[in-house]
Amino acid sequence: MKFHRGALSVVWASSLVTTLPSVIVPAQAWIPHAQRVSRPIARGVLSVSSGTSRAYSWLTATVLADDNVSSSSNADGRSGTTQPALGHEIAQGTIVSAFPGGLTAVHIDDSWTSTDEADAVPSSVEAVSVATPKVSKPVTVTAAGDLLGMHVGFPNGSVGVVVAHRPPVVFVYNDDDLASKDGPVKVFDSRATVTLSEQAKVVDVFGRYAVKGEESTSNDQKLEKGAKERVMFAPIPQVKDIALINTPMLTGITMVDALAPIGRGQNMLVIGHDVHDMRGLATDFLQTQLRDNAGVQCVYAAIQDPKDVQQRLQRAGLDDQVHVVIPTLRAKGKDPASKAAEAVAMAGTACAIAESYALDQGKHAVVVIDTIDLHKTLWDATTRVLVDVFGVDAVVEGDRNGAASSEMRAFYSSLIQRAGQYNQRRGGGSVTLVLLTSIPPANADETTVFEETEFASSNDKVKTRIQMLVSKKIPLTVANLQKIGNSHIPSASEGQRRLVLQHVDDLISMSDGQIWFDERLQAAGQSPPMDPQRSVTRIGIGADTPSRADAPALRRIVERLRLDLSQAASMDGADVTSKASQSQIRKQQALLLAMYQPAGAGGRRLSESCTAVLAASEGYLDQAVDHGALAGTQQGRDVVQALLEHVNAVSPASMREIDSSLDINTETRRDLTDAIASHF
């Protein structure tokens, strides 16, 4: 048994489910016979009581009775309130590993069996209506039959929440770093919940209100009558509850809305090496929603750098309109695994807030998860614990070599697939997820000597030249590789980069689309540095359905946009002396000029995006490009800004028509073209 000082522990529980239920694990994620592992699996079926009363208030964000909220503390000085009623004990276990900062691994005791008849409860849980003084019966929705999201009580009285369950071990997170390894750990049949608060816009991972100007949080608050609690780790929407995605969630970023549009109820990955660019896009997206779509609710899980996120929102005037989930203030000394566990819980809290709007009020909500990378960090930590406790045969080969096992895909899907457009029977609301993920830049180290195996993916010509250097015992340095004309120079961390890219590929296979920011395009001055060949939405692609994520108006204007950009990109470094080639390059430059938008500068209206792209497509920006008005230059920005101001002034009715209908007809397009021509 291995134990690390701190609050991350592993607990061994009994009466666990033998297989993950379909509501959490998609069909493709079932573990085949060949991938079964040799760690023990506990017996029985575990479910959640439909009669469970209000969840532990320390783990719940509550509606404020007034604005004057101060922090509260327990006798030991920790923030919190009185011990809650946790429901029925359904399993016991012992801590087998703990990490500083809140993550604990608990081995569920397979020999422990509850005699309480209340353990045989329906596997369902839904929003709990908070009334005073009673709690009304919750509405039923099928939920997971495993321990994800369950409350876990430690011998010292602290309570955590299960953030990952890999039978027979549960991984529990709380922000009490004093969890004791002595005595049994108890798992209860109540799930951690979050209660929507309109006044508490900034909450921590446990939903506690962050008091402005104070390094503390408070949850000593009263619940308003009728307030709804939402399960932190809710099941993914079922097919019977969702409708087709057919309404765009415009980002205001012309290139994104044209090439990789986001639909209402969709999940979308944003991939790149520069987190500032990605955060800028996320901020612009939220700003566009709050400007153009009355009633859209925005939630931001500020996992990586909450101060930077809050400052961005404040500069954009969004700080009082966006729900922000921040890490707990006791962040010092946290092990990376504990930070990752908190990040997973933060993502769950953010989704729960959004689901409260979507399912309880029929509204549309957008959730930005600042990074999904820490999910992989937590998964790797759980794998190491399983190997330490049970040996290497306790995990499948995919987990050992960094690939995506069925079990890991189920873990990710429990977050990614929480996005959805609900049907009218479920209120007609939606949850749209934007998930940021980072990749390391491919920087070469001039002093590094590379191995021949690092060029295994290169073409035969490069391999032949590499073999020639190796045969002559010439070191594979950057300088020598450049001498033989090798354009692919691995970085010193190429192996790690490949693992990250493999992880990104796994995420892409589970998502509805991706926006890929390329470092080469950023270095060339393109903004956003979006790769048109790797950025795509998969909503409505390859299926004979009316499901679409894009706005019809922009779709009708940009029909050849991706092809034009790709053809021009393929000419990079080629002979462009012919008139046809020069014309193609000029058109590419005009399109990039029309779509140039610095990160965080704010989004355009749909009519403005249509105007800019139409002007470039019809050749009205060619002359400006020939005179040096390129994307990223002040001259270029002035040209586009003047054009948009002119068209807004000359054709306000047509612009309003596009914005309201999201479409463009022949007459409106003709009017827009005439307005553009009159400017030049």
TrEMBL record:
GO terms for molecular function: ADP binding; ATP binding; proton-transporting ATP synthase activity, rotational mechanism. It comes from the Eukaryota. The keyword rRNA processing does not apply. Residues 252-440 form the ATPase F1/V1/A1 complex alpha/beta subunit nucleotide-binding domain. Residues 1-29 form the signal peptide. Pfam families: ATP-synt_ab (PF00006). GO terms for cellular component: proton-transporting ATP synthase complex. Keywords: Signal. PANTHER family: ATP SYNTHASE SUBUNIT ALPHA, MITOCHONDRIAL. Belongs to the ATPase alpha/beta chains family. This is ATPase F1/V1/A1 complex alpha/beta subunit nucleotide-binding domain-containing protein.
